[in-house]
Amino acid sequence: MASNLNPKYAYTVVYVSDVAKSVAFYAKAFGYHVRRLDDSRRWGELESGQTTIAFTPAKQHETEDLTGKVQIPHSDRHRNSVEVCFDYSDVDAAYKRAVENGAVGVSEPEDKEWGQKVGYVRDIDGIVVRMGSHVRQQ
User: Fold this and answer.
1) Which residues form the VOC domain (predicted)?
2) How far, in Å, CA of 24 to CA of 4, rounded?
3) What residue ranges do the domains of the chain occupy?
4) How confident is the model at residue 6 (pLDDT cuts 50, 70, 90)?
5) How far apart are CA 98 and CA 91, in angstroms?
6) For residue range 80-112, what is the model confidence (pLDDT) as tens digits?
7) pTM (2 decimals)?
C-alpha cells in the first residue's frame, strides 16, 4: 500500500497575545494581505505565497493540555525559539516601512558575507523578524 510521504509545507503558526492586532500589524508593517480573521478572533491568516502565516493566541485551552504552555520571553535578552523571515527585493524600504508601522528596530539592513542584505526587527509581541534579500549566487 503506497502512502503519500511527500507533504507540502502548509502553515507556520505564530502564537501572539492578540490575534486581531497581530494580523493588522503584519499586514501594515510587512505588506501582507489578510486572508482570514475568524469571528472568534482566535485565528488569523495572511496571504503569503505557498505557506500560510497563521496567528493564534499564546494562551489557549484547546492545545495547552495536549502540547504544553507557550513560553513567552520575559525581556529583550530572551527570544522565541522561532524567527520569522521575509524576503524582499528592497530590504531598506521594507525595514523602514516596518519600523514606521510599529516594529522595533533591532539591526538595520546590512550586506552579509554570504551575499544577502539582512535587517532585524521585533514585532509587537517581541518576536524577531528577519528581513532579507534573495541570496545572490556566487
Assistant:
1) 8-134
2) 36
3) 11-66+79-132
4) confident
5) 10
6) 667 899 999 999 999 999 999 999 999 999 999
7) 0.83
Would you say residue 65 has pLDDT above 80? no
| Helix ranges restricted to H, the chain | 19-30, 61-67, 91-100
Measure the CA–CA gap between 43 and 96, rounded to whole angstroms.
28
Cell 496571504 sits at which residue?
A: 47
The CA–CA distances, whole Å, from 43 to 24, 37, 59, 75, 79 equal: 13, 6, 12, 26, 23
Q: Which residue is associated with the grid cell 493588522?
A: 24
CA dihedral 122, 128, 134, 138 (to 10 degrees): 120
Q: Which CATH code fits 11-66+79-132?
A: 3.10.180.10
The confidence score (pLDDT) of residue 9 equals 83
What pLDDT is attached to residue 104? 95
What are the C-alpha distances in Å from 45 to residues 18, 32, 99, 121? 13, 10, 22, 21
